[in-house]
Amino acid sequence: MSRLKDMTLDELSAALKVASGSRKIGRFKILHRQFERKRSIPILASHDIYLIPDIDAPDAFNNERFASLFRVTWRRIPKPARDMMLDSWKTLRKDPSRPSYLVPHISLCLKWHGWTGFPDLREAVFGSVITPTQSILFYGPIIDQTPEQHVMEVIAHELAHVYLGIEFLRGYGQFTEGREAKLEEKVTNACAKKWGFDMPSLYKWFRSDECEDLCMGVIRQYKLERKPEDFAKDNTDGSKAVDVPAS
User: Fold this and answer.
1) How far apart are CA 217 and CA 194, in angstroms?
2) Widest Cα–Cα separation across the chain
């Protein structure tokens, strides 16, 4: 293992190609996780939590800023909730059937996987938990320009999704017919607010001209496609959704 830790990115990349060609799945997974650690920014290295730069654009965003804000946000979450998430991630890492990426898989993304639409500004995309306890993705072009206070509130919101998905394994975060998405968002915001985060301030900012200008600027910069179905109505409580549904 000490040899593995000493390997450079180039050496790990070469070893990954060999392992992939030989179909040694176990070794490939070990090498891939170490490759991700090596190229990533530690958030809580002692707990194997890293920020993974976008593979296609590793230097596109201020990853150091985001990692720092994530650490600050994490420390503000009550210890019992933190411990529950850490225990869940440790369990997932021991699952031999899980993918080869790090758990949790935290990343500032340039593109949403397989998704090209950009929602109505009333439902601006900031972050998403694709699976409640594994992939926590944040849309880099927007997060990079969002005020620090609101970035931490978005992070808290996504971590509340993770926490609630663990606490209520049956019935929360399950993408099934009849799922009450709006209710889920309300419960998630209430959880983050209980942790001490100013969620009303975040949603007030979502409705501001500053946020609208930011989102429109990203649409123009990245020439993002907007579809008629993306233009949903405001939530009944007047809030805006933070998450984009997983594809």
Assistant:
1) 33
2) 56
* C-alpha–C-alpha distance, residues 85 and 161, integer Å: 11
Q: How far apart are the first and last CA of the chain?
A: 36
**Tokens 């979450």 found at:** 77
The predicted-structure confidence for 145-182, as pLDDT tens digits, reads as follows 999 999 999 999 999 999 998 877 644 444 444 456 67
Burial class (CB in 10 A: 0-12, 13-18, 19+), 39: middle
CA distance 182 to 239: 10
DSSP-derived pairing of the beta strands 41-44 and 49-53 = antiparallel
Q: Which runs of E-coded beta strand occur in the chain?
A: 41-44, 49-53, 105-109, 127-131, 135-139
Show the tokens assigned to 179.
């799922």
78-120 tens-digit pLDDT: 999 999 999 999 998 888 777 777 899 999 988 754 444 455 5
